Recover the amino acids of this structure.
């Protein structure tokens, strides 16, 4: 097999939950050696065995699905950072590593003397991305924040939901974790590129909240430049109609449809069989459709109600109209396009057996990357301490007995 | 083009030339590369790219140079115009690609091939070229010709879980799946550059929004089904742990989380009960189990709401955080812009643009300990760099440029 693009790059992962682990997973996929520093004394939130694989397994942090999904491919060492000996081991590891990812609270690594400024003393050209919710500066940066807190802070939740419902809801998940995770991976590779040319390292202070804010540009600029505070619009567009999510045949079946111009409107009408209402002048232009959007949408639901969400999507897409079924997990698992792309892959694990994981999500023709299994907690203690750092087996056993490796 | 040593070293991507021929799917990819110093040229059709028409506009004036989307995502890029659908345009494009390192494109699969400037043609001209293609569904497969927009990709990848159970799935108010995919494409482009540094060869990078949305912001709906035959459904703002949801307060809403920390420590369930006024009904030991709380959240909620309604969102934020609960206000975008935290980090920056003047834009999502040297420039005007690129680099005379303009090629 060809050398992977990031082979030889060693990254230390001081991470918990989703955002930091996602960054490391992307680096792993292309050959970086990512070493997670964890301890059973204070398990990663995702290691806590809430949902274990296979289904109905006894609780076991080595079978925790959330951890496995976001940490596949990495190595794991179990080191208690609260112990001086543990921190010394990490500093020795930093000397032979290239970069670190940190999404602990802002006080954690700083308190241990293992933040960038501490580690730079050990390795001057070190690269580190710290990705706290609000960054490493400012009056609120030490606040305790989880993924679900960040969209509300950015103003994104306020904009997300239906105008006639008093409470906004935001997204079901944690998009900021993925945005910040992939931006972190991007910045690490960029910093490595720079270091190889100049010999200089870098510290990147990445506030997760700013990753969401960065893609809310128009909402903010409408405020900072036009002085307008946008309000929730629900599933409607100010500019296009038809636009939205339409109820289809069956329970909880929906299809998104978006008609952006006259050409797509003609194709849409043709695809749904040119019903008489579609000929009415009040639906003839984009402006008139927007003015009569309630009536327009109820006519469209007359059509979608007679088709499953997948049928509606196929009929409209065949006609060249943007349409997308709101796929549930089962639909996605059976999606012919995802199957064709091998988006999910089966990987075997010593305790969990064979499970489906997200594969390498980007297709690089000549350096496709590789999706490897997740590690058991502390599985690589011997590799890292003995092979990389040169500790003897006796010394390692002493660290285990002293509960430094735990 | 000769590049001085200093310029080559000033930023991570300053040795590279990027050509971007992309709509809203690829524009953030180009921006990320340009912001790290890549010499990035945006190729627009004569008259300007369609993304110049994305509202809103400065002063609500629907002018080619005033769309916020275009102004924001094309900072640090140069802009040229070129008609790719005619022979002269294709010929010029190929000349441009001879010394390009990266091309970012987002056309439907097969379109560039039909013009004779697809990957295989460009690879012959420049074998070290990296072409990063960003499409809805990828370069092959049964959905490859499907039309894609933000609404469509978010619907297929993530929307089933968004919103309240009693309402339809809820549409994202921003281009969440497109931009998240564009960051992945920028990352993949750097990986391809490293592969090229090792092997000398370029390659085609195929990034599909559907893949990224399903495996990323779709929050594992598919893997949950594949591994557990369990369907994740809409749950409003309620998280799997409890309490963790949006609650009303005096002047709006706040996201309130209690009991994530085990035991009696700050942030724990007993500490939370204490914070909300120690209602006797919540003191039974049975409530210390998070799963039980999640199943009986309707019993807990009235007590929480009674507490939160006494305070403003800012007060809840301050007091909750002082007690180590992950509480945050549901800020309006205006609150975020004006918050002391945002101001202290100088997240918003001033950009001077020849048409809309000096205005406030969101900045990049990172701060650097030692800033790399990047030439900052506002988004290009239509064809602003035509003379620089066509005459300065490709050697056309001003007279030839006039011919190209007259015949609709640039």
């Amino acid at each position: 097999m060809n050398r992977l693009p990031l082979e030889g790059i060693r990254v230390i992962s001081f991470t918990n939950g989703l955002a930091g682990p996602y960054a490391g997973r992307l680096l792993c996929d292309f050959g970086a050696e990512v070493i997670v520093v964890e301890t059973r004394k204070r398990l990663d939130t995702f290691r806590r065995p809430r949902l274990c694989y296979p289904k109905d397994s006894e609780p076991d942090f080595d079978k925790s699905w959330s951890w496995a999904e976001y940490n596949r491919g990495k190595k794991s060492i179990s080191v208690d950072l609260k112990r001086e000996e543990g921190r010394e081991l990490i500093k020795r590891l930093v000397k032979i590593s290239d970069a670190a990812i940190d999404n602990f609270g802002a006080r954690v690594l700083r308190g241990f003397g293992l933040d960038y400024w501490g580690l730079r003393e050990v390795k001057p050209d070190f690269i580190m991305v710290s990705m706290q919710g609000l960054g490493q500066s400012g009056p609120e940066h030490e606040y305790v924040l989880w993924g679900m807190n960040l969209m509300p802070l950015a103003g994104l939740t306020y904009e997300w939901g239906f105008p006639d419902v008093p409470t906004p809801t935001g997204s079901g998940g944690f998009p900021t974790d993925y945005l910040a995770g992939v931006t972190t991976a991007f910045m690490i590779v960029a910093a490595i590129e720079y270091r190889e040319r100049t010999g200089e390292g870098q510290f990147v202070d990445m506030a997760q909240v700013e990753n969401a804010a960065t893609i809310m540009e128009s909402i903010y600029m409408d405020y900072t430049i036009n002085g307008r505070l946008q309000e929730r619009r629900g599933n409607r567009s100010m500019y296009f109609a038809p636009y939205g999510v339409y109820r289809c045949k069956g329970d909880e079946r929906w299809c998104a449809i978006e008609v952006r111009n006259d050409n797509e409107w003609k194709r849409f009408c043709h695809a749904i069989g040119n019903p008489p209402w579609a000929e009415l002048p009040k639906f003839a232009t984009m402006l008139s459709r927007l003015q009569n959007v309630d009536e327009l949408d109820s006519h469209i639901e007359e059509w979608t109600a007679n088709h499953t969400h997948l049928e509606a999507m196929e009929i409209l897409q065949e006609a060249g109209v943007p349409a997308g079924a709101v796929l549930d997990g089962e639909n996605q698992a059976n999606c012919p396009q995802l199957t064709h792309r091998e988006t999910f892959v089966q990987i075997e694990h010593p305790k969990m057996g064979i499970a489906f994981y997200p594969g390498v999500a980007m297709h690089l023709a000549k350096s496709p990357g590789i999706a490897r299994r997740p590690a058991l907690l502390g599985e690589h203690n011997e590799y890292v301490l003995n092979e990389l750092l040169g500790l003897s087996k006796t010394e390692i056993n002493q660290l285990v007995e002293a509960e430094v490796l735990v | 083009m000769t590049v001085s040593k200093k310029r080559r070293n000033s930023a991570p991507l300053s040795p590279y030339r990027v050509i971007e021929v992309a709509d809203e799917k690829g524009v953030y990819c180009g921006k990320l590369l340009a912001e790290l110093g890549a010499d990035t040229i945006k190729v627009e059709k004569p008259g300007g790219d369609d993304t110049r028409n994305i509202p809103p506009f400065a002063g609500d004036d629907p002018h080619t140079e005033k769309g916020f989307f275009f102004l924001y995502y094309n900072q640090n890029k140069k802009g040229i115009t070129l008609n790719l659908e005619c022979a002269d345009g294709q010929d010029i494009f190929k000349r441009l690609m001879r010394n390009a390192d990266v091309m970012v494109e987002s056309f439907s699969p097969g379109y560039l091939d039909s013009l004779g400037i697809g990957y295989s043609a460009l690879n012959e001209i420049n074998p070290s070229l990296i072409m990063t293609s960003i499409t809805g569904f990828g370069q092959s497969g049964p959905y490859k010709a499907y039309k894609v927009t933000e609404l469509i990709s978010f619907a297929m990848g993530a929307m089933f879980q968004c919103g309240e159970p009693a309402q339809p799935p809820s549409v994202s108010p921003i281009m969440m799946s497109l931009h998240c995919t564009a960051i992945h494409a920028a990352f993949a482009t750097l990986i391809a550059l490293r592969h090229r540094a090792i092997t000398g060869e370029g390659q085609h990078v195929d990034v599909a929004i559907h893949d990224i949305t399903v495996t990323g912001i779709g929050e594992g709906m598919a893997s949950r089904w594949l591994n557990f035959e369990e369907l994740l459904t809409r749950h409003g703002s309620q998280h799997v742990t409890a309490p963790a949801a949006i609650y009303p307060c005096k002047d709006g809403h706040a996201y309130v989380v209690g009991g994530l920390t085990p035991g009696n420590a700050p942030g724990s369930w007993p500490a939370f009960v204490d914070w909300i006024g120690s209602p006797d009904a919540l003191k039974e030991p049975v409530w210390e189990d998070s799963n039980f709380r999640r199943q009986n959240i309707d019993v807990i909620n009235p007590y929480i709401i009674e507490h939160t309604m006494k305070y403003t969102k800012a007060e809840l934020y301050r007091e909750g955080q002082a007690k180590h609960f992950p509480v945050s206000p549901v800020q309006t975008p205006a609150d975020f812009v004006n918050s002391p935290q945002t101001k202290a980090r100088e997240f918003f920056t001033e950009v001077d643009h020849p048409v809309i003047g000096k205005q406030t834009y969101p900045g990049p999502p990172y701060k650097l300990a030692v800033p790399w040297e990047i030439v900052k420039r506002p988004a290009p005007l239509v064809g602003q760099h035509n003379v620089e690129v066509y005459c300065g680099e490709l050697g056309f005379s001003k007279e030839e440029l006039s011919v190209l303009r007259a015949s609709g090629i640039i």
Observations:
- Residues 257 and 326 of chain B are 5 Å apart (CA to CA).
- The longest strand of chain B covers residues 39-44.
- Residues 1-6 of chain B have pLDDT under 50 and may be disordered.
- Chain B has two domains: 5-218+348-406, 244-331.
